[in-house]
Amino acid sequence: MKITNYKTIICIASVLFANIIAAPSAKAQNSYKIGFSSPALADGKYYIGQHFRDSFVVVDSATAQKNSISFAAKKKLDTGVYTLLDSKRAKIFDFMVDDSRNFSIEFDQEHSFAGMKVKGSQANTLMFAYMAKQEWGRNRSKAISADKANPDKREQAQKDMEALNTEMIQFEKDYIKNNAKYRFTQLIDMFKNIDVPSQIPAGSAITDLREWQAHYFRSHYWDNVDLSDHSIIYTPQMFDKTSLFFFNVLYYQDADTITRYTCKLLDRVAHDSTMLRYFLDYIMPRYEHSTKNIGWDQVFVNLVREYYLKGKCSWASPAEVYNKRQTVDFLSQSLIGAMGQELIMADTNQSDDPKDWISSHAFPQKYVILWFWDPDCNHCKKQTAELKTLYDSLSAAGNKIFEVYAVGYESDVQKWLNYVHQHNLPFVNVGGPNVNIDYQEAYNVHGAPTMIILNADRQIIMNKTIPTSSILPFIEQYEKLHPEQANRAPSNWQIEGIRRAKTK
What we know:
Order of helices and strands: HEEEEEEEEHHHHHHHHHEEEHEHEHEEHH
Strand order of the largest sheet: 10-9-13-12-11-14-15
CATH topology of the largest domain: Glutaredoxin
Number of helices: 15
CATH architecture of the largest domain: 3-Layer(aba) Sandwich
CATH class of the largest domain: Alpha Beta
Radius of gyration: 30 Å
Structural class: alpha+beta
Strand content: 15-25%
Number of domains: 3
Helix content: 40-55%
CATH superfamily of the largest domain: Glutaredoxin
């Protein structure tokens, strides 16, 4: 999987130019003077900024007059790529601070790469020339692709595209070779794609080529990146690479796999608190608060336990560590694989006598769907109707493999009761204030609808709300992965024992 198509190269280069930002280094000076001039520069405030993740940090500001502006200060300005920002702090274009801190850039109305005129900085001259070549290549590729649509030009267009690929690949190689001392070139080389072998090596336990290549890509994803240089965290190229890794490359993996690859990366930078914090601060909230991705809450719990609770996060205050511990203790009760806590609630009769309440565990069906819903919630009502249709069809066929323990998530008990009766809901309908435990805490219920699926042992096997149409396929897949559950049935004496113990 080497890069052999120039369109891939120019795409990478375009993203890199658009995104890489100042990477601080030892090569810094204590003063600078950087000027810009263009018909596009209206009078007003402008800024020099640095990218941090997906936003900008302002470094300096100045006022433009008569289509020109000058930024000057007696302070340190590190080597890297900076951004000229307009009065609203929106990006105009990126430029280099590398071989000089005293230079000027003149640009046209469209601030095109080819139109950039630089004085006093070879680094910027070379970078703009590089980007202009990539821009030319993109335009040439579009023209050739248009010719391919014409049968009379298709053969020649194919030859032209191959020639263009060859030209752009060679240009890329020559540029990197001839300009290796510049930071822009170093970042291109650092963030280039890894080469994935086209054949499985002898002795591999993985025999499917695509699966092996995916595993190789995940394992070697960070090979080209110098993780010992924490200045790269200030590059949005690093931000893009981080986002792609966690929320694309690892997106469909299970919690154990995500945890394993994440810890492999974090352990490489654990000695550098700046790098470690960069990753954790970005990924942790997304894993904690995701409401759709199965198992991501488990990843959050794993990372808190491994890094915060083991004292590896030196920046974390005792209060933050305490809060993380509390959150983990709370989430752990509703993770996949945890024992589902038994709910014992009053049904539509709303009896005050606990002996009349109904247990969420005491059913002969193999599976139990805990369905927390609200009659005022449109999404709840829609999925409740779909769930009723599925439930009725399975009951009619004599194949009701699950029971629905439907908890009315509504403080107005009469409103809930009216809806249940009006729509003839066939589930085990429970609700109201008469309940043995706080189900919101027990199952991490933050709102409606919330779905929890329990297996025959009343362990949690799903803690996300999935579409009704996905319930049976999910159970089928679950039993393929856990064949011991396929013919398992609840143990009634155990269930009754639990129920009686909790109602005494």
